[in-house]
Amino acid sequence: MNIGQAAKLSGVSAKMIRYYEQIGLIPQAIRSDAGYRHYNSTEVHSLRFIRRARDLGFSVEQIAALLVLWRDRDRASGDVKAMALSHAAGLKAKIAELQAMVHSLEHLADHCQGNDRPDCPILTDLAELTAAAEQRSQAPQRVPRFGAGTPASSH
Question: What does the record list as coiled-coil region(s) (predicted)?
Answer without folding.
Answer: none
